[in-house]
Specification:
Blueprint: E1 17-20, E2 22-26, E3 32-36, E4 42-53, H1 54-67, E5 73-76, E6 82-87, E7 91-96, E8 99-108
Antiparallel strand pairs: 1-4, 2-3, 4-8, 5-6, 6-8, 7-8
Length: 112
């Protein structure tokens, strides 16, 4: 089964959360040794916002519901990097007049 791609435009300007998992050991005289924790030690997540009419937001929610927070999908980051992501927290917010704002966080996923 092919991996689906999230293709809806998202608003820009949100700050991503990027962290590197590092294991550290401290020794005498202030010496410390650091090493990356695993082959995929970069953890990144991106807050996204989509605004649109109810039908558009329903399509996006149907996409996210199909993935149910566990199945990864393709998405291109603001820096233009295509990667696998999951979304566990979508929130459609009614703005009035049939317009909704959907907020969510896309978290990096890795294939085994």
């Amino acid at each position: 089964m092919a991996i689906e791609k999230f293709t809806w435009p998202t608003e820009r300007g949100e700050t991503p959360d990027i962290n590197y998992r590092v294991r550290s050991s401290k020794f005498g005289n202030g010496y410390a040794q650091n090493v990356g924790d695993g082959p995929n030690n970069k953890e990144d997540s991106y807050p996204v916002t989509c605004v649109g009419q109810k039908a558009k937001v329903q399509q996006i929610m149907a996409f996210l519901d199909r993935h149910a927070g566990a199945k990864a999908f393709l998405w291109t980051t603001p820096l233009g990097e295509l990667g696998l992501f999951t979304c566990k927290n979508p929130a459609p917010i009614p703005m009035g007049g049939g317009v909704f704002k959907l907020t969510a966080t896309f978290e990096r996923a890795f294939q085994p």
